[in-house]
Amino acid sequence: MKHSSLFNVIIFFMxxxxxxxxTTGSFIDSRDGKSYKTVKxxxxxxxxxxxxxxxxxxxxxFKIESYGCLYSYEEALKACPSGxxxxxxxxxxxxxxYLGGEKVAGGKLKETGTTHWQDPNTGxxxxxGFTALPAGFRAYPMSGGYGKEAYWWSSTxxxxxxxxxxGIVYNDITVDRDNxxxxxxxxQISVRCLRNN
Length: 197
Hints:
By secondary structure, the protein is of the alpha+beta class. It has helices at about 1-20, 65, 75-80, 90-100, 100-110; strands at about 25-30, 35-40, 45, 70, 85, 135-140, 140-145, 150-160, 160-170, 175-180, 185-190, 195. The strands form 4 sheets. Strands 4-11-6-7 form a 4-stranded antiparallel sheet. It has a 3-stranded antiparallel sheet with strand order 1-2-3, with no helix packed on it. Strands 8-9-10 form a 3-stranded antiparallel sheet. The chain is globular. Residues about 5-20 have low confidence and may be disordered.
């Protein structure tokens, strides 16, 4: 009986360490001198902030220092600094699988509290250190989701006119895998870069 209890305690601490014991760091984007926090989740090293590089005059940069820029798909493909890349759909899936699947990963990625997320910011723990923020989207001529929704491009096309992305909302803990228009007048959403292996 004592051995069983000790075993359970050891397993509990191992799970707790795996869940929150992530390695953090930082780097400087040599293109504009901006500094970014980074976090290692599983075997992947992610930016712990949305990309803020103003790629072109068409790049949407409302509240850039907190929320980062919103990029078209074509901009997103070229926006990450040297040594980093726009994650493929399979790399996003690796992240959500590591966190227990799409049905629960959103809460583990969202920044806690309601400074940036609208109430109730359901299930937000940010135990990964990913610190997802709700920059919303722009889809000409409209925009929306600010404070309620976060979206990030993947580099993977769904078809000729659409690319796969990931999204999180303020009132749920899931991560949605969706596809949005990647054309010239399509969506502009956030970018999280993944470090090259």
